[in-house]
Amino acid sequence: MTSKAIAEIRGATSLDDLYRIFNANHLTAGWHKKRSSLWPEPRTRFQPQNWSYAEAAQAMDRAGEWMSTEDAERRNLLMFNPVDDNDYDTVRTLVCAYQMIKPGEYARTHRHTANAMRLILDAEDGVFTVVNGTKLPMRKGDFLLTPNWYWHSHFNEGAANAYWIDFLDVPLVHRLEPMFCENLPQAHQQVTSEPDPDTCPFVFGLEQMIAELEKAPIGADGNRRHRLDIDAYIPTVAVTYIDVPAGGQVAEPRTTASRIFSVLSGSGSAQVGERGFEWTRGDVFCVPSWHAFAVTAAAPSLLLEVSDEPTLSKLGFFISDAARSL
Ligand SMILES: [Fe+2]
What we know:
This protein is of the alpha+beta class. Helices cover 17% and strands 33% of the residues.
């Protein structure tokens, strides 16, 4: 604080005088701040929301008439939460997007500190991604990892458009601020290996996941779950497959985790907070933190849940309303 400020403080004749001087010196009296900084339980401005794959696929097909992957870097549709002027974050820590790539196109090579995952919705033979030189097929139903700072590019050498959902922890990176990103100067990275995808730790094939679910015990709610062991590669998120029988339900009380659900197969309805909606294959919906939800399957359904629970757990911030001692 300057000697001028000290002189002004000495000369103040009221608290209001002091507040003006504090403000000019970038100080706020804790009892006089604009808004409270502590509250009794979690608050989020993020809202329950759902998105339709059929609509997104149609929209990307139309956009593809004018926008190439050359121009767009990625031809994707971000599923943003309608909160404030946000046009990116799906939930507070995660973003997801539908992406489409046409035959003969490629999405050029880049890398970033944010972790990425992809759920392939529709792809014919000839669609693949290259992750740090490793060529991996993108087959319908595959779930693929692209960890922090791994080079990645995508190719469609097939005959039909390919569609998938990207999940990234970019909003978490935005909030903590460790963002780095770079493009490979040459568009294509060298392919240095082409492993059997069934043995690659970055590939979770649908048949393999169904086999894991069949081995899993039926939970108290009547559903089978398989959580991927990906902490060594992507420590920020949990990815869980949930096999729900016809008429079954996935219901949870409020927790501090934010979640994104996508639908691998089946159909049904959901109630998230105040929002009720129906879902079918390829659809996505989000459960912001501290929202109870109930998802009901009309037909046998396979759901994929991506949540930030590991980030919260590691920091001691994961709290469930059902088991809280706070
Ligand atoms: Fe990327």
